Amino acid sequence: MTFVHLLVSLLICITFTSSISVVPDPSTQDLINRICKQTIDFQFCNKTITSQLIRRRTSIKTIAKLTAAKAWINAIETLDNIEGSLLPKAKDRRSKEEFAACRKAYRLVDAHLDNALKYLYLKDYRFMRAYQALALVNISMCRTSFFHPTPMVYANWNMRILTDIAIYAGKILAPPPPLRTKTKKKTP
Ligand SMILES: *[C@@H]1O[C@H](CO)[C@@H](O)[C@H](O)[C@H]1NC(C)=O
Ligand SMILES: *[C@@H]1O[C@H](CO)[C@@H](O)[C@H](O)[C@H]1NC(C)=O
């Protein structure tokens, strides 16, 4: 199976399972709780992961795959929406500037999550998380304001939490090595 085949099968899998509701078994729900407790919206996170499940018992490896793919797909859809609809239909200068900045940001977000998925496929979870973290940084380049409500306010919030979910799932799958604190000296 090539990388592209993997992406296509993940896409199909997610598209066709999102309407079927599976009730996670206790061990799976426990994993979901551990991930979602770290996010800013437990209910949204719980619903997002549960709606992707195919079986009641799902391993952390599968959850990490599903959530990484979900973030990746969401970045593609968001960029598509900016380029195809928001930017061409922007009415005022402020919205136009915001959407242009978001397009720039989401091109990078998209590229980073592409790489994250590639390293997931290669089972290199440290690189996967590094790229997801870069995506998170670039999401913040798309600046939105609740005082200037545009569709990007929710879209950006959504993208941020989906990326967070993928990162927390990845951290359970492959915990980062412990920090070495003994040899470190504080720099003034
Ligand atoms: C999370 O979702 C599951 C399945 O939909 C539900 O049974 C459970 O009550 C939810 N957890 C919380 C804390 O809301
Ligand atoms: C976005 O990501 C790139 C790396 O791909 C980085 O060089 C750049 O500084 C990031 N932008 C911001 C605003 O963090």
TrEMBL record:
InterPro entries: Invertase/methylesterase_inhib, PCW_Enzyme_Inhibitor, Pectinesterase_inhib_dom, PMEI_plant
Presence of keyword Lipid metabolism: no
Single GO molecular function: pectinesterase inhibitor activity
Domain Pectinesterase inhibitor: 27-169
Alphabetical list of Pfam families matching this protein: PMEI
Ranges in coiled-coil conformation: none
Gene3D superfamilies tied to this protein: Invertase/pectin methylesterase inhibitor family protein
Keywords: Disulfide bond, Signal
Annotated signal peptide: 1-19
NCBIfam families: PME_inhib (TIGR01614)
Family: Belongs to the PMEI family.
PANTHER family: EMB|CAB66412.1-RELATED, PECTINESTERASE INHIBITOR-LIKE
Name of the protein described by the UniProt record: Pectinesterase inhibitor domain-containing protein
